[in-house]
Prior knowledge:
- The complex is a heterodimer.
- Chain A is α+β, with helices and mostly antiparallel strands.
- Chain A folds into two domains: 4-240, 3-Layer(aba) Sandwich (Rossmann fold), CATH 3.40.50.300; 245-377, CATH 2.40.50.140.
- Chain A is 22% helix and 35% strand.
- In chain A, a hairpin with a 5-residue loop joins strand 12 and strand 13.
- The radius of gyration of chain A is 25 Å and the shape is elongated.
- The mean pLDDT of chain A is 89.
- By secondary structure, chain B is an all-alpha fold.
- Chain B has two domains: 1-41, no CATH class; 59-285, MetI-like fold, CATH 1.10.3720.10.
- Helices cover 72% and strands 1% of the residues of chain B.
- Chain B has helices spanning 8-41, 58-65, 68-97, 102-113, 120-131, 136-143, 157-182, 186-193, 198-209, 211-226, 230-236, 243-250, 257-281, and strands spanning 44-45, 51-52.
- In chain B, 30% of the residues are buried.
- The model of chain B has no long low-confidence stretch (mean pLDDT 87).
- Chain A binds chain B through residues 19, 59-61, 80-83, 86-88, 90, 92, 94-98, 107-108, 111-112, 155-156, 159, and chain B through 101, 184, 186-187, 189-197, 200, 204-205, 208-209, 285.
- Residues 51-52 of chain A line the site of magnesium ion.
Amino acid sequence: xxxxxxxxxxxxxxxxxxxxxxxxxxxxxxxxxxxxxxxxxxxxxxxxxxxxxxxxxxxxxxxxxxxxxxxxxxxxxxxxxxxxxxxxxxxxxxxxxxxxxxxxxxxxxxxxxxxxxxxxxxxxxxxxxxxxxxxxxxxxxxxxxxxxxxxxxxxxxxxxxxxxxxxxxxxxxxxxxxxxxxxxxxxxxxxxxxxxxxxxxxxxxxxxxxxxxxxxxxxxxxxxxxxxxxxxxxxxxxxxxxxxxxxxxxxxxxxxxxxxxxxxxxxxxxxxxxxxxxxxxxxxxxxxxxxxxxxxxxxxxxxxxxxxxxxxxxxxxxxxxxxxxxxxxxxxxxxxxxxxxxxxxxxxxxxxxxxxxxxxxxxxxxxxxxxxxxxxxxx
Amino acid sequence: xxxxxxxxxxxxxxxxxxxxxxxxxxxxxxxxxxxxxxxxxxxxxxxxxxxxxxxxxxxxxxxxxxxxxxxxxxxxxxxxxxxxxxxxxxxxxxxxxxxxxxxxxxxxxxxxxxxxxxxxxxxxxxxxxxxxxxxxxxxxxxxxxxxxxxxxxxxxxxxxxxxxxxxxxxxxxxxxxxxxxxxxxxxxxxxxxxxxxxxxxxxxxxxxxxxxxxxxxxxxxxxxxxxxxxxxxxxxxxxxxxxxxxxxxxxxxxxxxxxxxxxxxxxxxxxxxxxxxxxxxxxxxx
Lengths: 379, 286
Ligand SMILES: Nc1ncnc2c1ncn2[C@@H]1O[C@H](COP(=O)(O)OP(=O)(O)O)[C@@H](O)[C@H]1O
Ligand SMILES: [Mg+2]
C-alpha cells in the first residue's frame, strides 16, 4: 500500500524463558498489518494478548524476533527508539516527576534542538490543545489522573510525530471521564491529522473511536476491519464473543447456496445464516446472532407487520420457553431455552407505549430474526 | 465505659515522654562533650599538653596559620575520594540493580559489603603489602619489564586516596543502589521515546531522580574520609598527613589538648557545611 504509515510484515516476538516458566513466551505471532496515513487504528484484545508488545515493537523498545517493521516506508531494523518518528502515550503516563508540566512538554522539543522561544510557544500551544493552559508550572504529582493524561498527550503530540502510539491511555480514568476523553481524543485526532495507533481492551471504546479495528488474541491478529464490519461480520467465534454480546448455536449444515447455509440446530428446526468461509453439508458449525436482532412474540400470535423481520421467508424462526427475565432499564433481557436445549438471549428495548407485551418465566414464545443478521462461523 | 477522646496536648506530652531517653542520650553523649571540646579549644596549653586557663584564641590562630596546609590537604583528599567513589560507585550500583534475578542482586550486594567482614586495620595493612617497594604491584611490573626501578607508591597521597576509596566505596554504593532500585526505568523509555539518547536520558532523567542517593553517598564518604587517621597513618606516611592524624597526635604523648580540640572544632565546621549542603539539595528532590 502506498499510503501505509506503519507496515508490520510477518512480525514475530518471543520473550526468552524466564525463571519458573516452561517455555519462551510467544507474545506476537505472524503479524501482518498495514496502518494507513491519518487513520485512527485501534488494536483491541483481552489482557495479555500482545497489544502492548506490538506497540513497543513499533516504538522501538522491543526488537522483533523475526519479520520487518516499516514506518513511513523506512525499515526500522536497527533504528533506536529515539530516532523513530513516533511518540508514545504510556498507560501510566510516565511523566517526569522532577519537571514541571511545561518542562515535560518541552523536553521532546529540546531533544530536537528547537530554539527555546519556539519550543516554549509550541509547548503552550499543545497544552492549550489538551485544554490545560493554566497548569504549566505545576509538577505532575500535583495533578489529577485526567490532567496527567492530558499532559502525557501534549508531551507526545507536541513533536508532531508521524504516528502516535497510545497504550490504553484512558485505562486509569473513571468511566465518566473516560467517555469525555474518548470524544475529545477522537476530535483532536481529526484536528491534528496524526495517525493514531490506539491500544485498548475495551471493545466499546474501539467501536466508538476507531476508523479501523484489529482484534488480537493470544498474539495473533484475528480480524481487521471497520467497526461495523467487525461487529456485523465477525470472522471467528472469538471476535463475535469479544465484541459485543452474541448468541452461539451449534448445528449441522443441511444445504448451502450462494449466500446462505441452512443449519439444523436441534433435529427439527432449520436456521439460515450468511457464510464467509465455505461450508459443506454435514459440517459442524456455529451460528452467531446478536441478542438485539431477535424479535420475541407469544407462541400463538402471528407476526405483526411492525416486526423487524417482516418477510417470513427471510427470517429464522424457532420456538422456545422463557427461562429468565432481566429488566435492565433501557432494555429487557430474556433467556429462552429452545428445542434441543440450547439457550438464546434476547434483548428488547423498552420503548414507552410501543410494545406492552412482556413475558414471564415459562411462557411459550417464538423467536425470529433476519438471515442477514446470522453468521455461520467455522472456528 | 465512656468514650474518651485523647486531646492534642495529651499527644504532645506523650511524645515528649517517649523522646526523653533519646534526648537524654543526645544531651549526655553528644551535646555535653561538644561543649567541653569547644571550651577546651579556647584554653591554653599546660604542662604535658593539658588544658589550662586563661582563655585564648591562640589555638585557632595556629590552626589557620601553621596547619592550614594539612587542613587543605584533608579537604582535597576527602573531596577526591568522594568524587572517585561516586564515579566508580554509581555504575556499580547501576550494574547491581540491573541484575535479572533477586538472587543476582543480593549476591552482588553481598560482595560489596564482604570486606566489612575483615577488620579495617588488617585490610589497610594489606595495602602496604601490595603497594610497598617490594610489594605485589612493583614486583609484577618489574618482572614484566615495564619498569626498571620500583615505583614509590606507598607513603603518598595517592596511596591514601586509594585506601580511602577502597574502604568507603560501599558507603557510596549502598545509598545509590537504594535510590536506583526505586527508580522507574520506564522514565528512560519515555525519554528515549521523546528523542533523548541514553547519555542525555542519564543526565536529564536518571541522575536528577537518583540525586538523594548520590548526595547521601557523598556525605557518607566525605565525613569519615575527612576525619581519617588510620588510613593516612598506614599508607600516607608524612606526606599523607591528614587533620585526623594531627588531632590524634595532640592527644598522645607530648601533645596539646587545646590545639587538638581546636582542630576538631574546625573539622566539625567543615562537616557541618557539608551537611548543610545535603539539607539544601538532598531533601528537595523527594
Ligand atoms: N518483557 C517481557 N518478558 C517476558 N514476557 C513478556 C514481556 N512482556 C510481555 N510478555 C508476555 O507477552 C504476552 C503479551 O503481553 P502484552 O503485550 O503486555 O499484552 P497486552 O498488552 O495485550 O496485555 C504476555 O503473555 C506477557 O506475559
Ligand atoms: Mg498492555
